[in-house]
Design a protein that fits this description.
Length: 505
């Protein structure tokens, strides 16, 4: 199968896409429209109050983005008409049966849709358990049920994450989850019981007339507690794993492909190198470093940083759709880089430092700021000791000073006057240390399972798919998803770091 046959596959197809307002969804929509203007219709399911607001959302959040610039130039003054003919926004939500569509829409879709791409998800690591469960678990259930009603359906592609593997070590295979499987020995997961647990927790909160803040905190803590009980590090990957289980259990003979990307980064080549949306793990580190608010991080420098550019993920998705169309099987693809072209965090550390030496950030008065190399601390124990010395002790010392000075009104007034004379330097120092300490703690909690990750994702299924398409690539269309072709140092220096600063800062 060559690249031309992949392009031809999408001609005349009706495609339903959920999650089109997310980063990967936008890249997918643009790519299909650009390489195959003969696609019949792309239905985009979005949350909105009515058809007009759905259309505005798609225009603002998808079609109107910088990523569509090449497409606009290609069609010129006929661009708007082209989009009108090819893109159909739909008001709906995967959290509901039949997505909440009315009967006329439902019949049209079930009669006409050839391909479903389920990219809708909540990706917040510590989302409320009820919110994450509704989208990532029940959403997968309702997408599968809907797919079974589609008379012409040739393919259901579900976007998951490679980190459903939790914190496993060694080579992690491209294999499906079995219903009830967990990552902690001696435990069994009952998804129906998890749903009932959520319902009971919400009823109890309502009975106790809990505040919105209390409800939010309680449901977040519940999700994290349940995830860790069964061996997953956070609510996001736990619910994504359950979504895969549900899909595998209910699919019957549906042709299903599950794509598991690792950490998705900015576009490598097309249509706009460096373009991205949404801050991911390494992007937070880059931004924090550039702004001098993050001078150290919990990372084993020798740990493999498994990242993959967004356009490569979309290329793999499109080739997989064409290759597995109408095959009554479930196939898992790790769209990852750790096996074929591993890059350690040291590469990011060295490249980022070199980039900011060559392109220093500017201070308030426009003066160049010289950044020292970010310090990587490889164990949690060392990090705790470093944070106590660097941040917590100065904060506590400041608080103790405030308490001591507050013992007498006279001393308190003297401190206040000194603070004014020194232009509030005490307060600023205290606020600065507090801010840096809180930022560091939050980022460590979020990203430790990834920056200390010891696993390596097997991608033999993806490699076989690549080998089946690579040799006959006609050069006119680009569907490369081989991480072996990436020079990581060059990518970070010339593409990704400039993209982070341009689109996320």
């Amino acid at each position: 199968m060559d690249a031309g046959s992949v392009v031809r596959y999408f001609r005349g197809k009706n495609i339903l896409i959920t999650g089109s307002t997310g980063f990967l969804g936008k890249v997918l929509v643009e790519k299909i429209l650009r390489v195959q203007p003969g696609v019949k219709k792309i239905f985009l399911l979005v949350r909105a109050t009515d058809d007009g607001s759905a259309k505005r959302r798609i225009q603002t959040e998808v079609i109107g983005k910088e990523i569509s610039q090449v497409l606009k130039e290609k069609h010129g003054n006929k661009f708007e008409q082209f989009i009108e003919n090819k893109v159909r926004p739909l008001v709906g939500d995967i959290m509901y049966e039949n997505f909440g569509l009315h009967n006329v829409q439902l019949k049209e879709l079930t009669d006409d849709v050839d391909i479903i791409v389920n990219g809708a998800a909540t990706t917040n690591f510590y989302e409320r358990y009820d919110v994450a469960f509704d989208t990532n678990v029940l959403g997968a259930k309702y997408v599968c049920a809907f797919a079974k009603k589609c008379a012409k359906l040739k393919m259901l592609l579900h976007v998951s994450t490679a980190y459903v593997a939790g914190e496993q070590e060694g080579l992690i295979p491209e294999k499906p989850f079995v219903m009830g499987e967990t990552l902690r020995e001696g435990t069994h997961l009952d998804i129906e019981s998890e749903l009932n647990l959520i319902k009971d927790a919400l009823i109890e909160l309502s009975t106790n007339s809990s505040s919105e803040k209390t409800e939010r905190r309680t449901m977040k803590e519940l999700g994290l507690k349940r995830a860790r009980q069964f061996g997953w590090p956070n609510t996001y990957v736990f619910t994504k794993a359950m979504g895969e289980m549900v899909l595998g259990h209910l699919r019957g003979d549906l042709p299903v492909v599950i794509v598991r990307p690792s950490i998705i980064t900015s576009l490598l080549k097309e249509p706009l190198p460096g373009w991205m949306e949404g801050i991911r793990t390494i992007d937070s580190v880059i931004l924090g470093y550039a702004k001098e608010s993050l001078k150290f991080f919990l990372v084993d420098p020798d740990t493999i940083m498994d990242v993959i550019p967004g356009d490569m993920v979309v290329n793999a998705m499109m080739v997989a759709m064409a290759a597995y169309s109408e095959k009554q099987a479930q196939t898992i693809y790790h769209v990852t880089s750790s096996l074929r072209n591993p890059a350690s965090y040291t590469i990011l550390q060295e490249t980022a430092h070199r980039y900011f030496v060559d392109n220093p950030p500017r201070g308030k008065n426009g003066e160049p700021i010289r950044l020292s190399k970010m310090r990587f601390i490889s164990t949690v124990a060392r990090l705790r000791a470093y944070m106590v010395i660097t941040y917590k002790l100065p904060i506590e010392t400041r608080m103790n000073l405030r308490f001591c000075y507050g013992l007498t009104a006279g001393l308190g007034q003297i401190l206040h006057l000194v603070n004014i004379v020194l232009c509030g330097v005490f307060s600023r120092l205290y606020d600065e240390h507090s801010r840096k300490y809180i930022l560091a703690v939050k980022m460590i909690e979020l990203y430790a399972p990834y920056t200390l990750f010891k696993g390596c994702f097997d991608n033999m299924n993806l490699e076989r798919l690549r080998m089946a398409t690579e040799q006959n690539n006609d050069g006119e269309h680009y569907f490369d998803f081989d991480p072996k072709t990436i020079d990581w140092d060059d990518y970070f220096y010339r593409v990704h770091i400039p993209g982070v600063l341009k689109y996320l800062a």
